[in-house]
Amino acid sequence: VNAVQAGDREAFATLVDRHKDRVYGVLLRLMADPQIAEELAHEAFVRAYRGLDGFRGRSQFGTWLIQIAVNLARDHIRARKRSNVVSLDALLEQDTDSAILEDRRPQYDPLADVSEREMRKQLEIALQELPPGYREVFVLHHIQNIPYDEIHKITGDTVGSLKVRAHRARAILKEKLFPDATRMAPEDIVE
């Protein structure tokens, strides 16, 4: 960061390489569209480069960069809500079994692999049904493993409100993914 601020433009490529996967991962989960996530990630790095003179180091560079990306995602979601027009072509082109989200670890049990893929698909769908504020904190904390105090720096929300939203997001996801488990009466549970 200091090298870029001192005028070394090539040093920014190192920052991009170091942070591109995390920025893209956050945006992909927030937007559920690889193309939009890629465009927003690119824009996040452009804005970071242009605004690097204003970076004072009060937080980590990665946190500052994620904040830029989250703000871009919020702006995009707001703009999409305003237009509220969905292209049929875009829906047909959307691939829910995206290879980007595919688990490439070696599996020994083919049935477990199918079950895990189906659960991951259901989770991705359920994530997109969450209110944007809930999805944002869930993705940042539970998927990207960012601590609440860092998310506070990214979003400007209090740690308490972030924890509440994360709790509500987990409850909604549990209801969507395991509807029978949330409806069971205590006497139905066998120990």
Descriptive account of the structure:
With 191 residues, the chain is mainly alpha-helical. 71% of the residues lie in helices and 0% in strands. It contains ten helices and no strands. α3 (34-51) packs across α4 (61-83), α4 packs across α8 (148-155) and α7 crosses α9. The longest helix has 23 residues, at 61-83. It is globular. The model has no long low-confidence stretch (mean pLDDT 81).
Which descriptors would you attach to this protein?
191 residues; globular; mainly alpha; 71% helix
Secondary structure elements and their pairing?
Elements: H1 2-5, H2 11-31, H3 34-51, H4 61-83, H5 88-93, H6 110-129, H7 132-143, H8 148-155, H9 159-177, H10 179-183
Shape: globular
Distance between the termini: 56 Å
What ranges have pLDDT less than 50 throughout 5 or more consecutive residues? none
Tally of separate helices: 10
| Run of helices and strands | HHHHHHHHHH
Q: How many strand segments?
A: 0
What is the compact description of this entry?
With 191 residues, this protein is mainly alpha-helical. The chain is built from ten helices and no strands.
